[in-house]
Amino acid sequence: MKKLLVILLILMGTSLSLAVFFRPDIRPGYGVTETKWLSYYFEPLEGTNMDTVVYFMDSGKAGPTFLLMGGTHAMEIAGTVAATIFIENAIVERGRVIVIPFSNSSGASIATVFYPNQPDHFLQIQSKSGPRFLVYGDRNTDVNDQGRPDPEVYLHYPSGQELPGYESRNLNRNYPGRPDGTPTEKLAFAIMELIKKENVDFNLDMHESDTPDNYDIVNGVKVPGGRLAYMLVCHQRGMEIGALATMEIEFNYGVSLKLEESNIQFRGLSHREIGDATGSISFLVESPNPGFDFIWREKPDTLYDEKYPLKHRVGMHLATVEALVNSYNMMFGTDLAYSNIPNYNDLMQKGFEAYLN
Ligand SMILES: [Zn+2]
Description:
It is built from 9 helices and 16 strands. The chain is an alpha/beta fold. It has one domain: Aminopeptidase (3-Layer(aba) Sandwich). The strands form 5 sheets. It has an 8-stranded mixed β-sheet, with helices on both faces. β6 and β7 form a beta hairpin. The longest helix is centred in the last third of the chain and has 23 residues, at 310-332. The chain starts with a helix and ends in a 7-residue tail after the last helix. The site of zinc ion has 4 residues, from loops.
């Protein structure tokens, strides 16, 4: 009887905790051939808010494997929306694409607390099949999922680099992670495991920053912001591919991206650690999100801002995917190909809503 009660209590506990997990709305198209939980690659994530869905789009034909990541920082919605549009529309014709639209699911599960004057957690839009919500989450893992208060100083593993305590919950300061670390370190470790086991040849991590119109006030002096916006950061093995890609984007769409080599001093970032620890060549792109200009924008419109609308930012991310794939193929003589994805001009004409199921 006592045993039965214990089992019952465990079951109740499980169902209660499962009920609160955040699961974003993704409506896969015909191109998705398989889905797996990230915990497939590292089991301890299973049944936690750190687990997330991985979408496989396999042509069944020879070609390289490309990993596309959105939602490393869940408030950077151009990345999550670009990844979602890929999953809901693309048909991979040769080679294989793996997509993680919400890389830090815990961050997506809460409204952002990182900056003031931020958009709502759920933003309603009109998709092809009616009203739908986009997620504007937080930059970091929910402190409740991390399960401990932030340390005073965060020591990156394994470099020992010192960062502010809150960065311990930033997925993009936790690579390569470790199996016995914090939940955020475990998440980074799981993504590294996926990259190794699936032999990912190259990868893109999609981000957003403040806009070039932003500024900060430091000791009473106005300092221009937006340095990261319109930037493509490349692991050193990816510099030539990145250079070719930025030229292609400028030529095709008139959007100019700055090319930057990943700094070897800054540890824990995807473009640094993935490229160092695996054979996968890593890239990171930054689009300008008006939501981050919190110093002077009181009510930023992250969806329909006149100068930096979401369609422009999603178009920029998808143009980066297109150009990186073309440049990778050219450099290595490979053939990765996909169809049925809007290009930058399509998005600017029809809006991102036209490509969400
Ligand atoms: Zn970011």
